[in-house]
Inverse folding.
């Protein structure tokens, strides 16, 4: 009996470290250590350690959480869309836009360890326009942080190119064709 109890204890002890690696993969939990100020849409982080993780994942857009080091405070919830890279990396990678001296460096994309598809962050349109102009590049933008907002690529010259529009909601009621009377009653 003691042998079975001991074996069960060993199995549980060996299984727990394996679970930790698996449990963070679904939310892509990553640690961001920064020695400078960095910017995510709507929030500037001071130098320090932060936890970045996926809250909701979708084919065309996702929601990312930014938390403090011990995960007791939610600092921001931001919208992101898929981005691609050529080669996977063994570590999580954060790609940045350039920033003027003394300004926080905007985070462009987050790639989870080993993934070819990452998440490009969607900035408010006014801020995206500034970043795009300063970098002579496009920046993903929207005027709303809701998941059903229109997302555009803001170009360096301020032009907006629609990247993703939400699907129109359909209702149970169908439109009648002009002149058709579906009830058989004459119009009043």
């Amino acid at each position: 009996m003691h042998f079975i109890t001991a074996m069960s204890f060993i199995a549980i002890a060996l299984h727990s470290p394996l679970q930790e690696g698996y449990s963070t993969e679904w939310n892509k939990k990553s640690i961001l250590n920064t020695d400078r100020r960095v910017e995510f849409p709507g929030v500037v982080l001071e130098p320090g350690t932060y936890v970045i993780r996926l809250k909701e994942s979708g084919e065309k857009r996702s929601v990312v959480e930014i938390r403090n080091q011990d995960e007791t405070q939610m600092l921001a919830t931001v919208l992101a869309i898929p981005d691609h890279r050529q080669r996977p990396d063994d570590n999580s990678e954060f790609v940045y836009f350039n920033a003027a001296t003394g300004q926080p460096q905007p985070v462009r994309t987050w790639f989870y360890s080993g993934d070819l598809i990452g998440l490009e962050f969607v900035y408010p349109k006014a801020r995206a326009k500034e970043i795009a102009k300063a970098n002579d590049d496009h920046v993903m933008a929207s005027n709303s942080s809701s998941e059903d907002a229109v997302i555009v690529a803001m170009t360096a010259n301020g032009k907006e190119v629609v990247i993703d529009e939400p699907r129109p909601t359909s209702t149970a009621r169908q439109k009648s064709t002009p002149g058709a009377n579906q009830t058989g009653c004459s119009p009043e």
The CA atoms of residues 38 and 105 lie 5 Å apart. DSSP finds two helices and 13 strands in the chain. The chain has a mean pLDDT of 80.
